[in-house]
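User: My collaborator sent over this chain with a note saying "see what the structure looks like." That's all I know about it. Can you take a look?
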Amino acid sequence: MASTIKLEVVTPERLLVSADVDEVIAPGYEGEFGVLPEHTFFLAILSIGVLRYRKGSEIKKVAVGGGFAEVTPERMVVLADVAEKADEIDVERARRAHARAETALKEVSLDEEATAKATSALQRALVRMAAAE
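Assistant: Without extra context I'll predict from the sequence alone. Here is the result:
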């Protein structure tokens, strides 16, 4: 039995993470899910959230802006629309984005599209701040 699983997080721009890890916890569309070595095959839709992975006692975080995950017994590939490692996140910029999104939500009329965009921006900002903590 394998003791680790290969995790790859890929965005349209680059390979963000490639590591052998003990465990992955990902933000699934219907809630978080965990993946360990030798996990059964499955595909999952990812929502905006924080992906966490552990190697030994070290836990790392990645802010994910949606995408897909493919899991096999040996590996997990995350195809993310947008993703940032926690140590690459500009927290001050995320705070400003959060403030702008909150202001936009207060100012929008009943326009569904504007409300959806502002809500999504608010979610992304909150996730980036959570990942950076």
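A starting point for your reply to your collaborator: Helices lie at 91-107, 112-132.
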